[in-house]
Design goal:
29% of the residues lie in helices and 10% in strands. It contains 3 helices and 4 strands, in the order E-E-E-E-H-H-H. The longest helix has 17 residues. The N and C termini lie far apart (56 Å). The N terminus is likely disordered. Keywords: Signal.
């Protein structure tokens, strides 16, 4: 499997910092915990990194979004903002990203922060 090393952690993951030397990406560093002073709608989208597995399989990796609690909170608030006046009976989180966003959305709704009162 290769030599695992703590000296060069994979810079896109806060969940799994161990990698093989060959898997270390040489990309610009980004402070995933930084929060801009002027948080405009969608500011957190730059944290979502593109990733590929060959020429036919590509996706956006949201793991850096999950590392930044303010980014995740703003994302959830933006996602449910269009439903602020609607009663919500069920939140379904489908697939890997949905499991986390679904739980955070449910928690946000139950906290009452989405009401306009």
């Amino acid at each position: 499997m290769g030599n695992l090393s703590h000296s060069q952690p994979w810079m896109f993951s806060c969940f799994f910092p161990l990698t093989t030397q060959a898997a270390v990406l040489q990309l610009p560093q980004m402070d995933v915990l930084a929060v801009p002073a002027d948080r405009q709608k969608g500011w957190y989208l730059s944290l979502i990194a593109p990733n590929t597995k060959g020429p036919e399989f590509a996706w956006l990796d949201p793991s850096r979004l999950y590392c930044n609690s303010q980014a995740l909170a703003d994302c959830v608030q933006d996602l449910i903002s269009q439903f602020h006046s609607d009663p919500i009976d069920l939140v379904a989180g489908i697939d890997a990203m949905g499991f986390i966003l679904g739980e955070k959305t449910k928690s946000f709704i139950l906290s009452g922060k989405n009401s306009s009162d």
